[in-house]
Amino acid sequence: MKITFYGAAQEVGRSCIMISTDKAKILLDAGVRPEDNAFPSITDKELREVDAILISHAHMDHSAYLPHAYSRGYRGPTYTTKPTMELMNVLIADYMHLTEPKDVTKEGLDALSKHFKIIDYKKEFQIKDLKCEFIPAGHIVGSALIRVSDGKRSIIYTGDINLTQTRLLEGADLENLKADALITESTYGAKTDIKANEKEQAPLFLKSIKDTILQGGKIIIPSFAVGRAQEILLFLDDYINSGLIPKVPIYVDGMINKTMRIHRHNVIFCRKELQMRILMSDYDPFHSPNFTPIEGRDMRGKIARIQESCIVVTTSGMVTGGPVLYYLTKWGGNSANKLILIGYQPQGTGGRKLQEGAREFEIDKKKVKINLKVETFHMSAHADRKQLELIPKRIKGLRYIYIVHGEPEKMEDLKSAFTSRYRVTIPRIGESYNI
Hints:
The chain is an alpha/beta fold.
């Protein structure tokens, strides 16, 4: 088998990796790089030769190239889990609305909608001479590791992975894995990238929220619409119900409201405890009375003018667009208010600039003064350094590791942890390797 890297090599974003044999060519993911909308480096000719695309999960850096691929002539199937397909339909529609890509055609979008193939976890499926399998990855609902084998060699691709149990999901399923090669993400690959667990973080997070509320401030929590938003909303709901956070309105803005409904419809893919909580009581945390959906610009404007403390959970998680920019224009100048970042902020994003102390922010070509407090609490759905080091140890027969989806210095740092036991490569865009 040959591995070719068309994206996510020495960068975060536009994940797209080809696995090929003499008989088959498949792509693992087809994403864009959100901060500059960069596409995978695959040519249209190469794209038309692909037999199938397998999507690890719904986030745009792993799936948003699909409408471009179908518009450029690809007509093969796209394999996903059920939640991934449903979430992608929403996220790609939003992506199309925001970016208005000129190369995407109606025919391409129609073809995309007709070529989904839904696959259950741990159900092997065949693409010519390749056997493939989706395995729970613990990142977001529906997310999967992808195992590919030609009968002689096998590869495991992590996509984005999380080994820790969360309010929504169990950690990644690493039981009985065997492979010759691992393609692993490295978002938190540096030695210092160690996540505090919830027991350690929760008291600090709760104090931060409580202090702001008691001072009359407003709290903005930008989040990915899928995964982190649901985690933070369930977190806030639990602690408001327990009295550890003062009872203030929680406004939910942006696409989060649509994705909450998809999560509720796919609760069978979530933790058993969450399923039982819904089945055995009248309380449904996805429809909590503590949450108020923001519906339309008029309602958003009314919320922005209220004087009382509140919490707004909104998109986008990297502060690159979406309603969060509106709230920053209205509340960013008040030092009593607070912005809480809960996910990874890549270089070049608005979130990273604010994280690094930017006191001025450009929104709609206007400079906005930033006086509100900016804090970070890592509630990321990515494996941290300790987890990344553990993954290869759980895979029998492993010889090769390819490190992708990370900042170059973090990749180098992670590589140093593996070189004594494995043949480790940090590939560049366009490079191919045989295993």
